[in-house]
Amino acid sequence: MKVLKFGGTSVGSAQRMKEVAKLITDGERKIVVLSAMSGTTNTLVEISDYLYKKNPEGANNVINQLEQKYRQHVDELYATEEYKQKTLDFLKDEFDYLRSFTKILFTSFEENVVLDQGEVISTNMVTNYLKECGVKTILLSALDFMRTDKNSEPDFNYIKEKINELLAANPGYQIYITQGFICRNAYGEVDNLQRGGSDYTACLIGAAIKSEEIQIWTDIDGMHNNDPRIVDKTKPVRQLHFEEAAELAYFGAKILHPTCIQPAKFAGVPVRLLNTMDPSAPGTIINNEFQEGKIKAVAAKDNIISIQIHSSRMLLAYGFLRKVFEIFESYKTSIDMVSTSEVGVSVTIDNKSYLKDIVADLMKYGTVTVKENMCIICVVGDLSRDNVGFESQAAKALKDIPVQMISYGGSNHNISFLINEEDKKSALQALSDTLFNN
Ligand code: ADP
Ligand code: ASP
Ligand code: MG
């Protein structure tokens, strides 16, 4: 059974929901993961902010506006009075529920409940539409099987057991709908898989049921060779190895949630990226095949902090790197890039929650220099030793850009450059011009 995920724009209006319904009702049984309608999660974040700042009036205004928007979709989506009324009643309960948060003490638990409602609403609306069209459809609540562990990582064994149990207990349906993004945490509380997390939901389900294919339907024809929001003339990449796609997602290609490829890779389930606006376009297939001699794509990750530790005592001192890394570990802060010399080590991080403490601890070992507003540029493809010259082409493309760090050799799939954020656009354009457009 395939797992298909439709993102925010793909379910962004009544018309789009009808097109999704057309795409999924081809007679094959499938699991369909839906995001919230586009813009909704941002609006829910806005509502949470008002509630956090103890401004119930501000929250109520935004809730009422959002409710009006949703009520307008109802007339266009459903043909019968029965389903129109049923969905209006559902929306009334949902928005009354959101309004109830304006009357209580607002905590981070309630914040997660508020953020999760976008997916709850979109899945109910599409389920009602499919039922009205006579399709045998069931809505499975992601809160019944999607769970994270104490480290806030997906609890894969639990997810696998529960989703397979649910499918076995509900045979005979053509379409199984569920919410992307939303989950419970290790304490059973409502939580989520971070922004863009619906991709992660789809890949976790696909891996858990050993699906034949996971399809991520979005608003563009697959993974492009550079960020289309920033660079001109980007082109779709038709095939990526799991590792290449994982690097691109982690290093900023917004089309995929940063860690969603991992479960698909471990389970060996291919992932296909497809365009809801142009369903016959080929998109991108992500699988275990590795194409030799090709540089595939470039991505960029912002808000990076570089930390350089300079220590004359490091020279020939074994155990120095371990001590440095242990400091990051003790603050649960992961390191993206590393570069060493005899007198120092430079690393990058993207989480500055414990920056002050980390720096204070590192100062025991040497002089520490911190730079914020940095950007990692990641070039992905065949960078193996047999494929001589590609790393120098990438470096040559950046000849006019000040590069702070280079990381190469950690895998055969990528080379990363650390630059100032202000140089990102020119660096990405220069890489496209040199590597792809000549
Ligand atoms: P969805 O709501 O369907 O999850 P997203 O907005 O999260 O969609 O992801 C799709 C968007 O990702 C595209 O519209 C595009 O602007 C952006 N994007 C960034 N980098 C890339 C890339 N390398 N290839 C394709 N799209 C990219
Ligand atoms: N609705 C969530 C978000 O906007 C999850 C997703 O779309 O993947 O981040
Ligand atoms: Mg997304």
Write the layout of secondary structure elements.
Elements: E1 2-6, H1 14-24, E2 30-34, H2 40-52, H3 56-77, H4 81-100, H5 108-132, E3 137-140, H6 156-169, E4 175-179, E5 182-184, E6 190-192, H7 198-208, E7 214-218, E8 239-241, H8 242-250, H9 261-267, E9 271-275, E10 284-287, E11 295-310, H10 320-330, E12 335-341, E13 344-349, H11 355-362, E14 367-381, H12 390-397, E15 403-408, E16 414-420, H13 424-435
Parallel strand pairs: 1-2, 1-7, 2-4, 3-4, 7-9, 8-10
Antiparallel strand pairs: 5-6, 9-10, 11-13, 11-14, 12-13, 14-16, 15-16
The protein binds adenosine-5'-diphosphate, aspartic acid and magnesium ion.
Description:
It is a single chain. With 438 residues, the chain is an alpha/beta fold. Helix content is 39%, strand content 23%. It has 13 helices and 16 strands. The longest helix has 25 residues, at 108-132. The structure holds adenosine-5'-diphosphate (ADP), aspartic acid and magnesium ion.
